[in-house]
Amino acid sequence: MAGLNVGRRGARRADIVAGVSLTGVLLGLALSACTAPPIDEPTSRPTSSASASPTPTPEPDPVLLPAGDAEANLPYFDFVNRRLLETVPTPNGQQLVENLVAAGFAKADMEVTPDATVGTEAAETIQFSVRANGTCLIGQTGAAGYNALAAPLLGTGKCLVGKTRSIDF
Questions:
Q1: Which residues pair with 142 in a beta bridge?
Q2: For the chain, which terminal residue's Cβ has fewer other Cβ atoms within 10 angstroms, N or C?
Q3: Cβ-Cβ contacts under 8 Å for 60 (sequence gap 6 or more)
Q4: What is the count of structural domains for the chain?
Q5: Residue pair 128/96 in contact by the 8 Å Cβ criterion
Q6: What Cα–Cα distance (Å) separates residue 146 from each residue in 4, 113, 151?
Q7: What interhelical angle do 70-87 and 93-102 show, nearest 10?
Q8: Each residue of 112-123: pLDDT tens digit?
Q9: Residue 161 lies in a domain
Q10: What positions does the domain DUF6993 occupy (predicted)?
């Protein structure tokens, strides 16, 4: 039986070796599971998205410049006339003058053409003006639309050529 004993010892030894090997493999697997996964480094940095453009501040309304000439006051003259025309598309001469007076222009510096023909028909266009420090603001409104410009004062001391009506209202 001595031979048998040796055989058992060999088998036992093989079992031990196999058990130790299996334990080593299991221990290796267990330890590898305890390590954190590698962190993926981004290959490029995120770019900032287009920055929000600031909200543009609205342009302030033009203002009357009492010491300014016609060129300096043209934006304001145009502004107040267009504002009137938005609410009154076909104003008469009196409405045009009163609008300009309300905006700060002096009635004594104004001229306006008649808003009716000899036959009392409505005039196709009305021209109106304001003297501004030796220059003229001239506006025209009618079926063809509205226009305004700055011009030099005429040799007569007036802004408009031709017949104008008295501004007695």
A1: 125, 145
A2: N
A3: none
A4: 2
A5: yes
A6: 125, 15, 16
A7: 120
A8: 999 998 888 999
A9: no
A10: 81-163
